[in-house]
Amino acid sequence: MSDRFTERMRDAEVIKDTRLLGDFTVIYCKGVHPDAARTPLVSDGAALGVYGKKPPVVCERCAELLVYAEKRRAFCPKDPKPFCSHCDTHCYKPDMREYMREVMRYAGPRSMWHGHAVDGVKHLLEGRKHKKEMRRTNGA
Ligand code: SF4
Ligand SMILES: [Zn+2]
Fold first, then answer.
1. Residue 90's CB: how many other CB atoms inside 10 A?
2. Is 89 in the pocket of ligand 1 (CB under 6 A)?
3. Residue nearest to atom 6 of ligand 1 (CA)
4. Which entry of 54, 60, 129, 138 is 20 to 30 Å from 35 by CA?
5. How far is ligand 2, taken at its centre, from the CA of residue 99, in Å?
6. pLDDT, tens digit, for every residue of 38-80?
7. Which ligand is closest to the CA of 106, given by its number?
C-alpha cells in the first residue's frame, strides 16, 4: 500500500465516498447476486478502517470492483467529484466502468430505503442534469 493511498484515505470526503460505494455495492450484490457466497471485503481501504468496524459483505466479483474503485476514488483528480457514472473523465477501465454503472443504476434509487435518502436524491438529480447536458451537447 502506498503512502499516497494511505494519506488520501484519511480525507473525510474520500472516506465518505468510499463508504457510500461500499453500501451501494452491498445493495447491488444482495439484489443482483442473491446466490453468490459473500464475505467481508479484504482490501487496503478496509485494512485502514475506511468502512468502520464492519467492511462491506460482498461476493468475489463485487469485491474486485470495490478494491479497484477504492484506488480510483483515492486518486480521483476531480474536485468537486461527481458520481463516477456521470464523469466526463472516465478514469475506469471499460469493464469496471460498466460494472460501476450497473451498481449505481441499481442501488442509487434503492439506497433511499437503506439510510441514504440524501445520497439517493442527489444521485437522481445529478443523473437528470447529466442527461440534460448530454442532450444539449448532442444538439438534441
Ligand atoms: S470516473 Fe471521474 S469521478 Fe470517478 S474516480 Fe474517475 S475521475 Fe473521479
Ligand atoms: Zn456481488
1. 10
2. yes
3. 91
4. 54
5. 10
6. 999 999 999 999 998 899 999 999 999 999 999 999 999 998 8
7. 2
List the grid coordinates of 43. 482490501
With 0.70 as the threshold, say if the pTM is over it: yes
From atom 4 of ligand 1, which residue's Cα is the shortest distance away? Answer: 84
* 78, 43 contact by CB (below 8 A): no
Q: Supply 134's cell numbers.
A: 448530454
Q: At 52, list the grid cell.
A: 468502520
Residue 124 in contact with residue 109, Cβ under 8 Å? yes
Q: Residue 39: helix, strand or coil by DSSP?
A: strand
Q: 116 and 132 in contact (C-beta within 8 Å)?
A: no
Atom of ligand 1 nearest to the CA of 97: 1
* CA of 16 relative to ligand 1 center, distance in Å: 15
Give the cell for residue 21: 460505494
